[in-house]
Amino acid sequence: MGRGIFAAVGGQTKRDGAAWGTISAWAWAASRVMDWMETEEAIDAAHIGVVGHSRCGKTAIWAGVNDNRFAMVCSNDSGCSGAKLNHIDLPLSESVAQITRGFPHWFCPNYLKYAERELQMPFDQHELLALVAPRLLCVASATRDHWAGPVGEWWAAKLASPAWRLYGKKGLEAEAPPSPDAPQANGSVAYCLRSGAHDLGLEDWTFYMDFADRCGWRGK
Fold first, then answer.
1. Which one of the listed residues 47, 87, 105, 198 is annotated catalytic?
2. Is 179 a catalytic residue?
3. Residue 135 in contact with residue 73, Cβ under 8 Å?
4. Rounded to the nearest 10 degrees, what angle do helices 55-66 and 22-37 cross at?
5. Assuming Cys at both sites, which of 60, 63, 65, 152 could form a disulfide with 131, CB separation 3.0 to 4.6 Å?
């Protein structure tokens, strides 16, 4: 925690409960890339999305929440502490205790207090996703990625959707999770369950690009 941007701001050797972790640092870096992209005349800065897979899927959400210049946020298989609900019983998926035991430096120290105490959290991940509104949100899962908890990712997108309705937009309009490879993308919130494992591949990129096109990005 004493290297990179942390060293530039005085290090993180004595972190208080709210001190930022590496996910915040990666999200900060995404915003610095956006700073540069805004200076490039060949780039339409009004139509830039942030995409991430796994831990970078968590990062993409956090970057989009903190920087509304990202017009689309795409979370690919982000799982626990990303797009998956914590207040849900999915025994095969990663828990807060497991992720904070393996990667405590990703988060602020206060988050570690909820290890084995998820149900006592006064918040859940759908509230984080809701902060992307009214911009575009894509959440993608994979059928064999049980660790990321696909059902929990779908429910988070679904429960976040009322935030888009406040802006007169549609959220995730489906009433149940989809069959594999049948994206739900009729509103400003889209969800896809891809056949396969924990990965970011052509099918995922196609889903994101098709969704952007459907929302009028082509030719912008």
1. 198
2. no
3. yes
4. 60
5. 65
Could you read off the pLDDT of 105-162 as tens digits, one per residue?
A: 999 999 999 999 999 999 999 999 999 999 999 999 999 999 999 999 999 999 999 9
Any catalytic annotation for residue 198?
yes
Paired tokens of 57: 């899927």
Tokens at residue 181, please? 């490879």
- Residues 6+ positions from 161 with CB-CB distance below 8 Å: 170, 171, 172, 173, 187, 189
Which of 24, 53, 54, 81 is flagged as catalytic? 54
Closest CA to 220 of 21, 17, 44, 16: 44
- Please state whether the predicted TM-score (pTM) of the whole model is above 0.85: yes
Q: Dihedral of the CA atoms 94, 100, 102, 107 (nearest 10)?
A: 120
